[in-house]
Amino acid sequence: MVTISHCFENLRSQKKCALIPFIMAGDPDLTTTAAAIRVLDRHGADFIEVGVPYSDPLADGPVIHAAATRAIGEKVNLRQVLTMLREITPEIKAPLILFTYYNLILHRGVQSFLADIVAAGVRGLVVPDLPLEEAKLLIQMASAFGVEVILLVAPTSSPERIAAIAAQSQGFVYLVSVTGVTGMRSQIENRVHNILINIRNVTDKAIGVGFGISTPEQAQQVKQWGADAVIVGSAFVKQLGENTPQVGLQGIEKLCCQLKAAISPVVRKSSLTVSG
Q1: Are 29 and 197 in contact (CB under 8 A)?
Q2: Which helix (H) or strand (E) holds 125?
Q3: Is the full-model pTM beyond 0.85?
Q4: Does the keyword Amino-acid biosynthesis apply (predicted)?
């Protein structure tokens, strides 16, 4: 199984910035989620982050929280999400990253949870409510299953904590660009650039920036600041949650293409002079 780390090594060798869309599983239904993953995979997503609906999502802003609430209202649970992923991952090129809260992992049992997500084709795991001090056991167990646990750096993290998180994070380091929860913002704070530099000074691992990015212009800015990946969530979730499935899928296709174009290298055509 190709790891997230290996995918980033390949992308960086080509000087490419990765696009990581986030969607909430089960909103509006799991059939649409499966279709959305296929659409994103076909139209430029380098990795796809899939959220598991949870009743008390501490890191989620209003758009993603509402999506999780709708999915829970439709009785969507972790077992159903993994069943859906297991059915579609054989046809998906982009590695899947599961975004879930630690209580769901504990409820299932850490070892059983890891075995189940591996069987579903998941290659990365983000657990936003798992602090660094309690992550070591999960990281060790996940490594044995070939799953990479991606840790988050907050904009308020001290230099010492940034170094500690970067040392333990697998796959890439996830930089949260704003203080607070997920959601669309009108602009990306300039301090993100400085934090990116601070992380780069302590690790050679890839760095992804998320929370608050929703437009091609913001994605391009983050890439110019040196990010290896741009993570976009609420903008995709909003398309799927506020439209019919057909319109929502068309919307995420368009957004994915726009974001990918914004962070892709510009290919300049060379002019040829023909002498007579």
Answers
A1: no
A2: strand 122-126
A3: yes
A4: yes
Average pLDDT over residues 160-164: 96
At 68-90, the pLDDT tens digits run: 999 999 999 999 999 999 999 99
3-class SS of residue 186: coil
Cα separations (Å) of 172 from 109, 137, 159, 233? 25, 18, 18, 17
Pairing mode, strands 48-51 and 96-99: parallel
Rg over alpha carbons for the chain, rounded to the nearest Å, is: 18
Rounded distance between C-alpha atoms, residue 43 and residue 85, angstroms: 19
- The distance from CA 172 to its chain's CA centroid, rounded to whole angstroms, is 10
Judge whether 97 and 48 are in contact, CB under 8 Å.
Answer: yes
The residues annotated with a catalytic role in the active site are: 49, 60
State the DSSP string of 35-90: HHHHHHHHTT-SSEEEEPP-SS-TT--HHHHHHHHHHHHTT--HHHHHHHHHHHGG
Torsion angle in degrees (nearest 10) through CA of 206, 211, 215, 220: -30
Question: CA 105, 110, 113, 117 torsion: positive or negative?
Answer: positive
Fill in the DSSP letter of residue 229: E
Q: What's the CA gap between 128 and 115, in Å, rounded?
A: 20
